[in-house]
Amino acid sequence: MPVIFGINPVLEALESKQPFDKIYLQLGKKSPVISKIFKLAKAQKIPVVQADRRKLEQLTEKGKHQGVAALLAPLYYIGLEDLVDKIQK
């Protein structure tokens, strides 16, 4: 699953209504933006998990996560021929 991390990328994805699988917030990390991320996630019914720093580093391959990481929902693609068949049925 694709992972995005960092306060601004996750916030922008939430505001644009990207489909998420789950959002991870670092235990004990607090800021107005992290609170906003939490509130938007709850409003969109996205599961929020409290995680320790090691879990976030594992998810982001030690990227600069700023205490926030998110798993995006997988996107499924369908071929043009299959789409046409589905529409005709």
Keyphrases for this structure?
single chain, 89 residues, four-stranded mixed β-sheet, alpha+beta, 4 helices
Number of helices: 4
Strand segment tally: 4
- Major sheet characteristics: 4 strands, mixed
| SSE string | EHEHEHEH
Structural class: alpha+beta
Distance between the termini: 31 Å
Oligomerization: single chain
Determine the fraction of residues in helical runs and give it as a percent range: 40-55%
Q: Identify low-pLDDT runs.
A: none
Task: Summarize model confidence as the mean pLDDT.
Answer: 93
Biggest sheet strand line-up: 1-4-2-3
Write the layout of secondary structure elements.
Blueprint: E1 3-5, H1 7-15, E2 20-26, H2 32-43, E3 48-51, H3 53-59, E4 68-72, H4 80-88
Helix pairs in contact: 1-2
Fold and architecture overview:
The chain has a four-stranded mixed beta sheet. It has four helices and four strands, in the order E-H-E-H-E-H-E-H. Helices cover 42% and strands 21% of the residues. The protein is elongated and about 55 Å long. The chain is of the alpha+beta class. It has helices spanning 7-15, 32-43, 53-59, 80-88, and strands at residues 3-5, 20-26, 48-51, 68-72.
